[in-house]
């Protein structure tokens, strides 16, 4: 016999002992063990998929718009790099969550896509800084960050390949370090237009990390993290569009 009850803010199914459903929740499962992966509920799987799937088309359109607004080859290349990173983030994330939801029995496939999901974050961070590092004037030392950030992304990829899910705190530290290191260079630029938006987006990412690490504590924590990522990415896109490419009014005149 089943009944519903609330435990820790999540709606749980209370079933008779011995049932395979004992301990399972509708909106949140128990927290994962150390160095283990959290197992989302069906509802959480769906939310994880949809929260990034709905952003794929806007990311593609936004990337095409920046390419359309480019005045020279360097701006076009930069728009392409940024757009590829933005689109790859949402596409890879969506594919992984679909596989984890519908094809979880294919352990090797799921594991590979999970690694790709983690790896693409490093390249997304590098791509997000590319417009600022490529299109703004930098000093002799600061200009090295243009290539060093990609070296950091490659290093993060190797780390995921070798130690995926083994040292989660270290992995989170790498993400945050890579996110903040280029910011030190960007804030030292003579032209400070757009830095407030850049800082605002960074703050949103940092706040979202709370939910990123709250699976099994907060229902739909990972989907909420996705929403923070989407919001921060939108703020950064707006800054890139407004301060590094053309304004919307200029674009309308350009059509």
UniProtKB/TrEMBL annotation:
Residues holding Zn(2+): 97, 222, 226
Family named by the database record: Belongs to the ADIPOR family.
Any one Gene Ontology molecular-function term assigned to this protein's record: metal ion binding
Location in the cell: Endomembrane system
This protein's name: Monocyte to macrophage differentiation associated
Membrane protein topology class: Multi-pass membrane protein
GO cellular component: endomembrane system; membrane
NCBIfam families the UniProt entry points to: hlyIII
Pfam families with a match to the protein in the record: HlyIII
Keyword rRNA-binding among UniProt keywords: no
Annotated TM spans: 47-67, 79-100, 112-132, 144-162, 169-189, 224-245
Record bears the keyword Membrane: yes
Listed PANTHER family: ADIPOR/PROGESTIN RECEPTOR-RELATED (PTHR20855), MONOCYTE TO MACROPHAGE DIFFERENTIATION FACTOR (PTHR20855:SF26)
Alphabetical UniProt keywords: Membrane, Metal-binding, Transmembrane, Transmembrane helix, Zinc
């Amino acid at each position: 016999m089943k009944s519903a009850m609330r435990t820790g803010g999540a709606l749980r199914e209370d079933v008779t002992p011995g049932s395979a459903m004992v301990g399972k929740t509708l909106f949140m499962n128990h927290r994962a063990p150390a160095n283990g992966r959290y197992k989302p509920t069906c509802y959480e799987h769906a939310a994880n998929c949809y929260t990034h799937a709905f952003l794929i088309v806007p990311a593609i359109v936004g990337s095409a718009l920046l390419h359309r607004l480019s005045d020279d080859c360097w701006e076009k290349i930069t728009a392409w790099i940024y757009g590829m990173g933005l689109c790859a983030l949402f596409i890879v994330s969506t594919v992984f969550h679909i596989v984890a939801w519908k094809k979880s029995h294919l352990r090797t496939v799921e594991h590979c896509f999970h690694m790709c999901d983690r790896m693409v974050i490093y390249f997304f961070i590098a791509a997000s800084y590319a417009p600022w590092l490529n299109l703004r004037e930098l000093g002799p030392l600061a200009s090295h960050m243009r290539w060093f950030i990609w070296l950091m992304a490659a290093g993060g990829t190797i780390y995921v390949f070798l130690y995926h899910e083994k040292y989660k705190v270290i992995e989170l530290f790498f993400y945050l370090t890579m996110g903040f290191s280029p910011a030190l260079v960007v804030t030292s630029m003579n032209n400070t237009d757009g830095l407030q938006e850049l800082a605002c987006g960074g703050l949103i990412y940092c706040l979202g990390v709370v939910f990123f690490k709250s699976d099994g504590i907060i229902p739909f924590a990972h989907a909420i993290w996705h929403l923070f990522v989407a919001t921060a990415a939108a703020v950064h896109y707006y800054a890139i569009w407004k301060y590094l490419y053309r304004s919307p009014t200029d674009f309308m005149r350009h059509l």
